[in-house]
Amino acid sequence: MFVKRLLTAGLAAAALLISAHSLHAQGGRIAPDGQVGIGVFVGSGNGVAGGMTFGYAFSPSFQAGIETGANFQTSSGVSGNRYSLGVNARLLFEGTVNPFLQGGFRFNSFDPFDTASNSVDASDIYLGFGLVYYITPNFGLNGMTELLSYNLDSETLSAGITSTRIGLEWWFSR
Predict the structure, then answer these.
(1) pTM of the predicted model, to two decimals?
(2) Which of 39, 57, 64, 112 could be cross-linked to 53 through a Cys-Cys bond (beta carbons 3.0 to 4.6 Å apart)?
(3) Domain boundaries, the chain
(4) Which CATH number does 2-171 carry?
């Protein structure tokens, strides 16, 4: 819980600092366009502490990709590994700092080290809000918080800050 609050506060502070300055490092270019990208992220919530993303920028305002994550965790006294794999789409609202909406589908698996416990698989659909700032036309910093998450297996909807994450992304030149 503390890490989630810390990441959320950090995201809010970073957004405030970035938007309070007139940053011109982009040279007129707002977001990647027609480029393949990779990224890394760290975060909290939904059991995944970090991972990688692979994406394609169809235009400066639309990106889509896949994400994968992993985490060692203890849940209800059982330790194990959690893995996730998903697809996502991101709609950017262009500016010096690009706010975005991101939605996706994710499959999660928790494999306990205790062989007496069964693995738990779940899939969910999520919607999040975030900010990305492109330091150069190819390199960006981002942060996102998931606001809605619907677990398809238990048919439960979670609203509010369900997870937060920060990351780096690199877009290859055309």
Answers:
(1) 0.75
(2) 39
(3) 2-171
(4) 2.40.160.20
